[in-house]
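Practice record 12: protein with zinc ion.
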Amino acid sequence: MTSYLLKGVSVLGGAKQDLVIRDGIIADGGKADETIDADGLVALPGLVDLHTHLREPGREDAETVETGSRAAALGGYTAVCAMANTSPVADTAGVVEQVWRLGREAGLVDVQPIGAVTVGLAGTQLAELGAMATSAANVRIFSDDGFCVADPRLMRRALEYVKAFDGIIAQHAEEPRLTEGAQMHEGEVSTRLGLTGWPAVAEEAIIARDVLLAEHVGSRLHVCHVSTAGSVEVLRQAKARGVRVTAEVTPHHLLLTDELAASYDPVFKVNPPLRTRADVEALRQALVDGVIDVVATDHAPHAVQDKECEWAYARPGMVGLETALPVVLSVLGERWDLIADRMSRTPAKIVGLDGHGGELTAGSPANLTLVDPSARRVVDPSELASRSRNTPYAGTTLPGRIVATFLRGVPTVLDGKAVK
Ligand code: DOR
Ligand code: ZN
């Protein structure tokens, strides 16, 4: 196993130092086979994504576990949680084990499968949560993401079920009766464009209900892609009461607004939709305060024919793995400890991924990424490693470049390029 000396690296923005990676861990000094000139580069613990759509099995034309893993490594990630809305749905031990095995074979990031809450994501019958939890995939998070577990009795049962093994229900908060036919955020812009709106209250009402259910049951709730200022207030109150709830925000909800829908370019169609400037400001503040615990990408690759069509027929979603850190850097600035916390430490802790999100000190597993904060990059969709091209940042200049990523001491990215 090749050893590496990262010469003059700054760990989390601290003073320059030398870091040696040997035998999969961060070593206590000594010689190395290869030297990387890391002057001006910042080392972060490898990023951990709680919300990635890898599309395999079923939509390998949009992404595979391997192509998505490569995109993740290039984005600085060492672990991703794979969402369950595949085809077939990841609602059995068999499917989650398949995804987990494909992740191991690709060997570019640790792929932790998420299991569905309900059979076929249909929202009527609980899936085999226990069988998925005790499978080789060791599922800890369950989600019907893409759909809301709207039935309160089913949501209660799911929370009760996972309590036994301290599992988590990750909710896609969307009251479906309030979003029928919705095309974008309900507000001034939707009125102007004449498009059916997705009101903020459809998200807020479900979060309010679910924090009460989680409090009643005493189990863990995670809220996917929080998008409104009102949701932040519901979460703030719940956390103040001690409810076991965590929440994520996506890079796109931290940067983009519903004004972009005026272009009618479906690349900006996403669920939940892009909201207003006031929502964006509230989400940023909540991320800094810790009311929102983590940034998660909701990387949602879609094939060309599903995206390059009329707005109303386009699938919602954006790719995000390769631009997440640059977007967060542009939003938060070089607050490295905060970034490491929200993109690595806390997500690793939530899902219980040992070896990820730890300190970069001697003896720790060498899961880390090296960033050049002084570099700027114009996003070119044709350069993405993802099999899909639906990035909302095409032509945008973003700060920061991922120079290298190491998974257990083995480089997955060197010189900004995937190693395999
Ligand atoms: O925009 C989205 N795309 N939101 C979701 O909840 C699902 C996702 C997908 O699977 O494409
Ligand atoms: Zn999603």
